[in-house]
Amino acid sequence: MLDKLKDNNRRWAERKVAQDSDFFRRLERQQAPEYLWIGCADSRVPANEIVDLDPGELFVHRNVANLAPPQDANYLSVLQFAVDVLKVKHIMVVGHYGCGGVSAAVDGNRRGLVDHWLHPIREVAHMHRAELDAIPDHRRRMDRLCELNVIRQVRNVASDVFVQDAWGRGQPLSVHGWVYSLSNGLVNDLGVTTSHVAEIDRLI
Ligand code: CO
Q: Is 42 considered catalytic here?
């Protein structure tokens, strides 16, 4: 079972050791990533590959539609570990255009549990309905909702007590909002980088 994947794994590990004989021994001792990536679970948005980083360089949390819900124990555990223990310097919330989770949040179809998970996106859509309604093209409207969702999640992260406490003790930490394009492989920086408590009010 899964022989192809096991073969792939063996060849990958051999390649890593051929390039750098100490690679795995060094990583085994400790991880010291500078970045936390909060991204969508979509298989087309592989975190490390997109920014061309090796194992050990990127701490990753992924879920459907790249949400940072303030009551989600999974996300909060990742965030606290990244901020308090790893002391990452940057947190990127990374959405992607054409996100099925974002469209599913507002298409009116019922799917079950995921409808509850996606509730925060319906709230974002409601808050920005005037701007969204003014975009006639459906795809472009959904792409804008992907951006607005990312900005909202940047706000969630930046206003979290773990992040605020880090800033309070003078720890350098920036929260960024990016949207990845499936069509050309490039990330679009939304220009909402937040590095200080006073900058949160600029966010939606
Ligand atoms: Co997605």
A: yes
Whether 96 is catalytic is yes
Report the separation in Å between the CA atom of 64 and the middle of ligand 1, taken as the mean of its atom positions: 6
Which distant-in-sequence residues (6+ apart) come within 8 Å of 196 by Cβ? 167
Question: SS3 for 25?
Answer: helix
Residue 186 — φ and ψ, nearest 5°? -105, 150
Alpha carbon of 85 to ligand 1 centroid (Å): 28
Contact in structure between 89 and 35 (CB atoms under 8 Å): yes
Long-range contacts of 74-82 (CB under 8 A, 24+ apart): 75/38, 76/160, 76/162, 78/36, 79/36, 79/157, 79/160, 79/162, 79/163, 80/162, 82/36
Nearest-angstrom CA–CA distance, 169 and 45: 34
Domain that holds residue 47: 31-202
Q: How far is the CA of 101 from the centre of ligand 1 (A)?
A: 5
**Biggest alpha carbon–alpha carbon distance for the chain:** 57
Q: Do 4 and 65 reside in the same domain of the chain?
A: no
Tell me: the pLDDT tens digits for 17-65? 999 999 999 999 888 999 999 999 999 999 999 999 999 999 999 999 9
Whether 2 and 76 share a structural domain: no
Torsion on CA atoms 44, 49, 51, 55, rounded to nearest 10:
130
